[in-house]
Amino acid sequence: MNKASAPVRVLIVDDSAVMRQLLTTLLSSDPEIEVVGSAPDPIVARDRIKALNPDVVTLDVEMPRMDGLSFLRKIMTLRPTPVVMVSTLTQAGAEATLEALEIGAVDFIAKPSGDINEVFAGELQTKVKSAARTKVGMRHAGAPKTQSPRPARARGSNDKIVVIGASTGGVEALKVVLMGLPSDCPPVLITQHMPPRFTAAFAERLNRECPMAVSEAVHDEVIEPGHVYIAPGSHHLQLGRRNGRNVCVLSDGPPVSGHRPSVDVLFRSAAQAATAIAVGVILTGMGKDGAEGMLELRKAGVHTLGQDEQSSLIYGMPRAAFERGAVMKQFSLVRMSDAILDVCEGSGTTRSHSMGAA
Fold first, then answer.
1. pLDDT at residue 146 greater than cutoff 70
2. pLDDT at site 92
3. Is the separation of the CB atoms in 157 and 348 below 8 Å?
4. Is 151 among the domain residues?
5. Rounded distance, CA 292 to CA 289, Å?
6. How far apart are CA 107 and CA 139, in angstroms?
7. Do residues 333 and 177 lie in contact, with contact meaning Cβ atoms separated by under 8 Å?
8. Catalytic positions, written as ranges
9. Which of 62, 312, 333, 340 is the most exposed place for a label (fewest CB within 10 A)?
10. Of 358, 230, 249, 252, whose CA–CA distance to 305 is shortest?
11. What positions does the domain CheB-type methylesterase occupy (predicted)?
12. Is 353 inside a domain boundary?
């Protein structure tokens, strides 16, 4: 069997025998996945990674003898391998998971709090197979390890709004983009696929590290310059109007394009208020959420930018939008901030058709 058709070989690392058996059963039910082994702690896992050379490792955050984050750092340093974190739905679990994604984990899945269902099984299988296709060690090519916030610069773009959608790989990609924007940037609305508790921790982490204010969006909250609004994991985020002002609108309606929050929902709401929008941006992620909404943005006359394949951890969502003709221009991640500011300041209008993809 050649490499292209071979099943994804997975090693499961978890201190719970019940969880190891559950993950083994769920992953093995997919013919495209082979569980080659399991380990109760990182010390055993270290030897099994060397012996089995798995394509993907699933890794629990909290374990004896060595915590998951410390072990992840060793994996990324000594033997870079795609890792999917298996996290608890707690505040501590959310914060540890976000740190894991910064260290180099490809993705994460939250441990189910109740009965296992087909949705969890399908999500687990999809994330593992997608992780196997990522280029670990080449994440965000060209991005500096540490970024200094961009100083504020005078602009006449405070009437503009930026809408951004992201999924797998978006935690780090969004940080790169926001660190490249000044503290007085146009307001930014973001939909990042993530469970509820995780979006709160994500917003708090970005608020500590980025030059502008970052928070979870609140229903009917007035949208202001120098502020980033993150869709809560339990609600769709839309751009709305109240009393002549732009506001965040939250909805707990059914999933759209398989997600709540959905990028399509955010982009479609922005398309209806196109005169106020500077730019729509779609970043790394698997699937196609955002592609149709971005096409509506472009048809409404909004500038639309997509992350290019080389700098995307998963070139799924950007590819789907690009292939639909929804993306006017693709940029590498490290150039996306400048591209956004160029459009907001008006200098991106004439350049968008003449510049090659960065």
1. no
2. 83
3. no
4. no
5. 8
6. 13
7. yes
8. 167, 193, 289
9. 62
10. 358
11. 155-347
12. no
